[in-house]
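Annotated sample (chain length 637).
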Amino acid sequence: MPDKFKTLPRWLIFLLDLTGVGVALLVSQILRFNFHVEQAFQNFSFALALALTINAGLFYGFKSYAGIVRYTTIRDTFRLLAITTISSIIYFVIGFIYYQKGVFFLSRATILINFFIVSSGLIGYRMVVRHLYRLFFTENLLKNRARAVVYDTSEQGLLTKRVINDYPQSQMQVVAFVDDKANNHGKIMEGLPIYDLNDATFKKLVDEEVKLIIIANKEIAVQKLNLIVDMALLHGIRVQQVPPISQWLKGKLGSEQLKDINIEDLLEREVIQIHNENIFYALKGKKVLVTGAAGSIGSEMVRQLIKFKPALIVLCDKAESPLHELCLEIQENYSNAPIKPYIGDICDKVRMDHLFEVYNPDIVFHAAAYKHVPLMEENPSVAILNNVLGTRVLAELSVSYGVEKFVMISTDKAVNPTNVMGASKRISEILIQSLFKHLYPSEEALMKKGTRPTMFITTRFGNVLGSNGSVIPRFKKQIERGGPLTVTHPEITRYFMTIPEACQLVIEAGVMGMGGEIFVFDMGNPVRVVDLAEKMIRLSGRQPGADIDIVFTGLRPGEKLYEELLSNKENTLPTYHEKILIAKVMEYDFHAVNEKIEQLIQSASKHYTFETVALMKEIVPEFISKNSTFESLDVKV
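Output written by the structure step:
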């Protein structure tokens, strides 16, 4: 029905406004002369003609007739007030001029009375039309809409309420506001009550059949968002968030535009503030190599490095299609970014030597690695060749070509490893740390003239949200299919960090590192994966166990129940950044380690399985396999 309701043509609004001006002036004149009509009409025709001419010009200049009457806004009313004010001032000026000539125009009392009457009339009939439209058309639609409340009583919350309730195609009706500001509780805003953020409020909302709470504030703190979501889900109320105002379609907010709260939104920590100018100076104008550039970590590293204005970023990866997609994205978002895609396998020394010879990078961020625990448990030789041999190739070339800093991205699975993947990353850590100590055993060696020392730095952190193959994207796909969600064990826990946060800390640690350090990041508190699964199901509007089941499949080969960031023999030292710590780890003799690693690589290159894993356990004695065929190698005679 609303779509068929035609708007009045502009010329008709123009004529209606002019008629209102004439009627208001007539009534003002009659009131001024206490209903003595004969006195009121003396010289009135001249005054009326002049008033209509003046207002016609003002209406045209201010375009007051161009708005849709049923959608009259505060801005429209101010525009009309401006017109009536200006016209009244003109009346006074003309009246004063004519009075000097002995000619009567309009008395000051008439002008003042006219100001109030014409303002009320022009604004009033618009308000009446708006109210009648809402009464006959919008209110009928509201009866069939889902009931919702808006969290936030700021301008954004008020705007959200208006566009939802006023939008004819909206499927929702906002019936109240919720806020945690004590001075707002119990008050009314635009006819709707403001409730406190507590359990009693949510029970009341359930009784009123409220189905949705809309988060209008995009800057809400993560802790507050978690509190609201937990309370809402406990009472079966769905939670959604409005997109930025710039993304509203034609200034309107439809239900299809509201975004479900993602689990990533609830697991994120407060935004990291990095104000270290050393990062900018350390990277500006430098040539940077990023290995594994097409991966989830590598690609975010590239996006962040662009902001520091390096001279060149070489994007090295052997995955052609993802690398091509990354290049297209960067070209669209950073048109002048100095990038160079390079297809290559880090295990191919000839190809990598060509890369270093042609581009001669100053800084290397080594993110390329095989990381999937079950796959590497089935293919240990490949894990060694990619994670260990690839790291050695890049490390040796970095020394040969005088790279300033080599920053390797490791994993928390390298601590007390229970699987091949974690052990391979621990061996890579040992390799580059012992190589640095071997090349530069003292400060004198570091300061030796004629050489540019290569600083080897390791960064170690846990799972990142949304990375390729992580648990959250898998849960999302399982929820879309209707379940079940598969969790390996009811007590399994993991640390989580967002990809941007992890990459920020990697860059910060890489700049602060002076060589030989293993940096560990503050990962917050560990999260039970089954709790994660249950919350994701509830966020989708369904109930775990009733709508979607959770199935426990058993720990996978090499999988831990609890991840660690430090081994039992390690402790940490603080840095100037509260989220970055330096791990004090056991140091190894390079010659002894290098000999063992050479044997390991030779075994892996022949794809010997048990022999390769046995050599890994010799290098990393704390590597104790769990739920794996390699547990037999841990049996002590």
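Annotation: The chain has a mean pLDDT of 83.
Annotation: The CA atoms of residues 148 and 212 lie 5 Å apart.
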